[in-house]
Design goal:
The protein is of the alpha+beta class. It is built from 18 helices and 16 strands. It has a six-stranded mixed beta sheet with strand order 1-8-7-6-5-4, with helices on both faces. Strand 2 (252-253) and strand 3 form a beta hairpin.
Length: 592
């Protein structure tokens, strides 16, 4: 029996075909217009409700008429400044200068400047000031014309009779000005200027000319007397704004102070790449994000207790990919649970709480990234589209809430996605994808990977090792204490259609062999036996051959303590017409 089913693992080297794996654009279902009742506006773009990805919104200019089966995979650029092309280095330097200027001027936190006053609004104010000035002038004339025992008023009628006035009177006028100044202290200073500007009367001049000069000076003084009023109306409040000794403000984003060190360069590069290295647009986006974070109270949101919503299985982080990127799983099929759905989307308050929870989850995930030039500062997103037709077409509240969350993530978290893998893609999606394909740029589309239900696990294994993939998606990672951990590497293999496949584990005498294995989709027969190395030894059945149905989707774990040296042989009998993905691992422990 053992000799008939035994096949070396080295014989099974046939590569797997990938015709059902589609690597291309974004899975964004139907267009959705923003309901007027929503507190946060949703753009009228193709629906992306199941894709909670912080990716920038981009409009593509290239259309693809033929169905896409494979596209160039996105490769992350370097974050080391010295490795950037010269144009990108120059753009980064320009953006840093703009940021520095903004920090010096406190533009990130300063309130917006008041709207400029229109000239039409200034005219009524000027017209209102004219009567006041005229009234002041009239009062001054009355005071001058009234009889008084004072020296200054007594001189006024003498000026009208200038021809007969003797020289002694002229000399008295020269001596009297200091007295006039002292007596007129309470009178506006313009009167003093009037007296100074009035030339001394000459014997050869007519009295009428002197009177005209006095009238002219009075008009000029009254006109200038309103100027000090306007000058005093402009307070000295503008003086502090002209001070240049104010220290630059400090602004942090995702826990990294801007321009503090090289980590800031990595953040600024995200904004530049999101805007195709257009410096002014990147700077405008940065200022918008800083303002939004202040408005949304991100720092307080991080401390807010949003546990107990039951969303831990909807969006969660689990393991890393082969390059070390954290992997975030989005499984919106969980909302098929009506109780969870009602608790999350029954009213606007609950929807807003879900939105805050999603942003909080994103913020906490980002705080675990490494923003050093050599670090990992992006995620791999896995979006499970299982049960998506019902969710998209009939779950209106879910569609609205996830659209709102997506819009915030797109606008305020640029370039945080290294790869998006869509699994369990429904049958109708390829046709729909061809319709919305042209909405995205080549850069955006190169980050997306699509796989149907039968190729989901195989597609995930291209980017994530099996021991890091959750068991529900075809991997070996399970919750709780297990014999194996993610530190124990697994091996991938293929079981050919209508054939048997065997795996051999050598064992020594009195050693304890532990193994676990699974076939994605199972529907195969599995058995295990021990074959001793000594000639004439008897084969021992460890596990009797049995068929494991597709519905089971379990990981088989077992162990065997060998009485003598030999090998443990696992047999997988695939009688279907489809090849099967096999994943297994083992380790040997000393027996007690």
């Amino acid at each position: 029996m053992a000799e008939e089913t035994k096949k070396p693992a080295s014989d099974e080297t046939t590569p797997a075909t990938t015709q059902e794996v589609v690597v291309s654009d974004v899975p964004v279902p139907e267009k959705e217009s923003t309901p007027q009742s929503e507190p946060v506006p949703v753009p009228e773009t193709p629906e992306k409700s199941a894709v909670l990805v912080p990716e920038e919104t981009e409009a593509a200019t290239v259309t693809e008429k033929a169905p896409v089966t494979e596209s160039a995979s996105f490769k992350e650029e370097s974050n080391k400044v010295e490795e950037l092309p010269n144009p990108e280095q120059k753009a980064l330097a320009e953006l840093k200068q703009l940021v520095q200027d903004a920090l010096n001027k406190h533009e990130f936190t300063a309130p917006p400047p008041p709207p400029p006053v229109k000239e039409e609004e200034k005219k009524p104010e000027a017209e209102a000031a004219e009567p006041v000035a005229a009234a002041v002038a009239e009062e001054e004339k009355k005071e001058e014309s009234e009889p008084s025992t004072d020296a200054a008023p007594a001189e006024t009628p003498a000026i009208a009779e200038e021809p007969p006035v003797p020289e002694a009177v002229v000399e008295e006028k020269k001596e009297t000005p200091p007295v006039v100044v002292e007596e007129k202290k309470e009178i506006p200073p313009v009167v003093v200027e009037e007296k100074k500007e009035t030339p001394p009367p000459a014997d050869e001049e007519d009295g009428s000319k002197a009177v005209e000069e006095i009238k002219e000076t009075i008009v000029e003084v009254t006109a200038t007397s309103t100027a000090p009023v306007e000058e005093t109306a402009v307070p000295a409040e503008e003086v502090p704004a002209t001070e240049e000794d104010v220290a630059p403000e400090e602004v942090s984003i995702w826990g990294i102070p801007l321009l503090a060190d090289e980590r800031s360069d990595v953040i600024l590069l995200k904004f530049l790449r999101a805007r195709d290295f257009k410096v002014k647009e990147a700077f405008a986006m940065l200022k918008s994000v800083v303002a939004w974070r202040k408005e949304f109270n991100i720092d307080e949101l991080l401390e807010e207790d949003l546990s107990g919503l039951g969303l831990e299985k909807v969006v969660y982080n689990h393991g890393v990919d082969k390059e070390g990127h954290p992997v975030c799983y989005n499984a919106f099929g969980a909302f098929q649970d009506n109780e969870l759905y009602q608790n999350t989307f029954a009213d606007k308050e609950k929807m807003n709480k879900f939105l805050r929870w999603r942003i909080q989850f994103m913020e906490k995930s980002i705080r675990n990234l490494d923003f050093s030039p050599d670090g990992i500062c992006t995620f791999v997103q896995v979006i499970d589209l299982k049960n998506s037709p019902g969710l998209y077409l009939y779950k209106k509240e879910l569609r609205q809430a996830t659209n709102r969350a997506l819009q915030l993530l797109q606008d305020n978290y640029p370039e945080f996605v290294a790869k998006q893998v869509f699994i369990n893609v429904p049958w109708w999606y390829p046709a729909y994808y061809r319709m919305i394909n042209a909405l995205f740029t080549t850069r955006t589309k190169s980050k997306f990977v699509f796989a149907g239900a039968s190729r989901s696990a195989e597609t995930l294994f291209k980017y994530i090792v099996p021991e890091q993939v959750p068991v529900q998606y075809g991997g070996l990672s399970r919750e709780g204490e297990q014999e194996f951990t993610i530190a124990d590497p697994a091996t991938e293999d293929t079981v050919k259609p209508a054939s048997k496949h065997t795996i051999e584990f050598p064992v020594t005498e009195k050693s304890n062999l532990v193994w676990e294995a699974r076939v994605v989709g199972w529907d195969v027969c599995y058995g295990a036996e021990f074959v001793p190395s000594a000639e004439g030894g008897y084969t021992i059945i460890v596990e009797k051959s049995r068929k494991i149905a597709a519905a089971n989707e379990t990981v088989i774990t077992n162990n065997y303590t060998a009485p003598e040296a030999g090998k443990v042989v696992l047999t997988f009998d695939n009688q279907t017409s489809k090849r099967k993905k096999l994943v297994y691992r083992s380790k040997t422990k000393p027996s007690d």
